[in-house]
Amino acid sequence: MSQDLGPFISQYQGGLVAGVDEVGRGPLAGDVVTAAVILDPENPIEGLNDSKKLSEKKRNALFEEIQEKALCWAIARASVAEIDELNILQASLLAMKRAVEALAVQPEHVLVDGNKIPKWTYQAEAVVKGDGRVACIGAASILAKVTRDREMADFDAVYPGYGFAGHKGYPTKIHMEAVERLGVCPIHRRSYGPIKAKLEQIELF
After folding, report:
1. Under a CB-based contact definition with an 8 Å cutoff, are residues 176 and 192 in contact?
2. In this predicted structure, what is the pLDDT of residue 189?
3. Does residue 161 contact residue 182 with C-beta atoms inside 8 Å?
4. 124: which strand partners?
5. In whole angstroms, what is the distance from residue 27 CA to residue 134 CA?
6. What pLDDT sits at residue 6?
7. Closest CA to 177 of 64, 18, 28
8. What residues contact residue 103 under an 8 Å CB cut-off, 6+ apart?
9. CA pair distance 48, 159, nearest whole angstrom
10. Across the chain, which distance is largest between two alpha carbons, in Å?
11. Does residue 126 sit in helix, strand or coil?
């Protein structure tokens, strides 16, 4: 994907446009992580795309390049407790707001992956599947995914046996078998169906 806005034509044609994306709405464990990026038109980055469409090796390489070449970038999150309190959609929007507010250079316009825009004062547009259509959103998705994947790999050592390094908290067969065998751990999202059901099962005994 080229550094320009590709197949998506924004109503904003200036230079200070930020892309923001989240990673981790589907997993049963861990924070939802977001990133915001303002790219530098004078310092292009080749190969930006939806992070899920890139190999781990390519994502890691782009992770470093984005941090070096972007005009500015920021990573933020909403915690497991916030996800359980607010619901995952509202927690994701809150984390996006935090990421954009943390940018060292504040954008004039924000392009948000998906079809919802956080409650904020920024001029913004929602872009469905924006991580594969808009360079700055693709960059944000890469920063968020690499950050979250690395954190979940670290949790593998803190909570051994769950396989967090492999499935990253998603509800795979291995993960569900581990929950059945080991129970719920502190980074599990208690509001999510399978975890909630396990906790209710425990309360019955």
Report:
1. no
2. 98
3. yes
4. 110
5. 25
6. 53
7. 28
8. 18, 36, 38, 72, 73, 74
9. 33
10. 63
11. strand
Q: Integer distance in angstroms from the first to the last C-alpha of the chain?
A: 54
Whole-structure pTM value: 0.92
**How, if at all, do strands 17-23 and 32-38 pair?**
antiparallel
Question: Mind listing the pLDDT tens digit of every residue in the chain (205 residues)?
Answer: 334 445 677 778 777 999 999 999 999 999 999 999 999 999 999 999 999 999 999 999 999 999 999 999 999 999 999 999 999 999 999 999 999 999 999 999 999 999 999 999 999 999 999 999 999 999 999 999 999 999 999 999 999 999 999 999 999 999 999 999 999 999 999 999 999 999 988 665 4
Task: With beta carbons less than 8 A apart as the criterion, state whether 15 and 43 touch.
Answer: no
b/e string for 105-136 if b means 16 or more Cβ within 10 A?
eebebbbbbbeebbeeebebbebeebbbbbbb
| Token pair for 86 | 């607010």
Residue among 126, 149, 121 nearest 60 (CA) = 149
Residue 83 to residue 171: CA distance in whole angstroms: 16
Supply the pLDDT for residue 195.
Answer: 96
CA-closest candidate to residue 119, choices 137, 92, 139:
92
Say which DSSP state 42 is in.
Answer: T
What number of residues does the chain have?
205
Helix ranges restricted to H, 70-172: 80-86, 88-101, 135-158, 164-167
